[in-house]
Amino acid sequence: MAGFFGVGGGLLFSPILFFLFTSMGVSSPVSWTIGSSLFCTFVAATSSTIQQRSHRNSYWKEGITIGVLGSVGVYIGKSIVTSPFYTEDVFVSLFVILLIFVSILFYRRSKSNVTLQLKAESPGLLKQFGAGGFGGLVSALAGVGGGVVLVPILNLWYRLSISKAVSISSLAIVLISLSGWLQYALLSGTQNGVTGFTLGYVDFGTSFPLVIGAFFGGFYGVKLNKKAEASRVQLGFSILVIVIAFSMIWKIL
Question: What is the structure's pLDDT at 86?
Fold first, then answer.
């Protein structure tokens, strides 16, 4: 689905893992969901960055800077998630809002057949800190890579071309998600995951099958996308968002 609709894998990893951890009755299911989802996103983003490199569309300096600065946002987000305030209800509410935001962006993208290649200088350090910090915060709170906010910020606010924004975002997500799952993995406690292959709040035994499945599924998803009509893709994504949102809300009722 991520390959077919052209959205980040974290948007699907988080709901799947949330359903699993809550169904298995593990303690702190939100922390397990986010930590494990960020590990899956890290693997997926690394693959995407390698592809960007092969197409000679890499902006290492900006991507690394935003990614490193994003770790600050990850730390703040992780502190919020591990606090008593961040309950399952809060997590689901935030994720549903994120889904609505993504659906609006997807709708706007599908309505435009022309991509403006804007000429703009690379954002300064302060702007990179703002983009990275916010992207890292969203990553740590929702278990997604942060590209859902980084690309719009770089493209719409900082006026970079969409190809450059996507390339910078892909590399930044590698570092942000790496920082994210490592910070969750280093959290100590007596928590137990679904499998025995865990570290902190990252369940590798659960994450690896998702990553392997996503690799092959993403390949065929991209091929199907090229054959589908834009209107059908847009309708399908709308249905997907509605199903995920209502499923997560139903899970906590």
Answer: 92
Q: Which domain, by its residues, includes 43?
A: 2-252
**Domains held by the chain: number:** 1
Residue 90 contacts by C-beta under 8 Å, 6 or more apart in sequence? Answer: none
pTM of the shown model: 0.82
Q: How confident is the model over 10-57, as pLDDT tens digits? A: 788 899 899 999 888 888 899 999 999 999 888 877 776 666 555 555
Greater pLDDT, 64 or 2 = 64
Q: Within a 10 A sphere around the Cβ of 232, how many other Cβ atoms?
A: 9
